[in-house]
Amino acid sequence: MVSVREQLDARRLLCPLPVIRTQDRVNTMAAGELLEVICTDPGAASDIPAWCRINGHKVIEMREQSGELVILIEVGEKKR
User: Fold this and answer.
1) Which of 17, 20, 45, 69 is deepest in the core (most CB within 10 A)?
2) DSSP 51
3) Which CATH number fits domain 6-74: 2.60.40.420, 3.30.110.40, 3.40.50.300, 3.40.50.150?
4) Is 15 noted as a catalytic residue in this protein?
5) For residue range 34-67, what is the model confidence (pLDDT) as tens digits?
């Protein structure tokens, strides 16, 4: 099991707020660190992975847990 560096509670937020909050948190983190995002917005299942691909981050795991979406992200290198 991978140890999680930080957790972001994006429950009860609707698009685009889960992605914006994820971006804000990732910007405070270093490459290689892990962020677990917990969401209830079904759109986050496609929006957050798409944002990760565009910005060089990696979705390690995505699962549904108790009606919530949990996305584990490995932070990539910062773009200059």
Assistant:
1) 69
2) H
3) 3.30.110.40
4) yes
5) 999 999 999 999 999 999 999 999 999 999 999 9
What is the token pair recorded at 7?
Answer: 């957790």
Predicted TM-score of the model (pTM):
0.91
Active-site pick, 15, 20, 31, 50: 15
* Cα–Cα distance measured from residue 49 to residue 16, given in angstroms and rounded to the nearest whole number: 13
CB 15 within 8 A of CB 43: yes
How is residue 35 written in tokens? Answer: 């962020």
Helical spans, DSSP H, in the chain: 17-26, 44-55
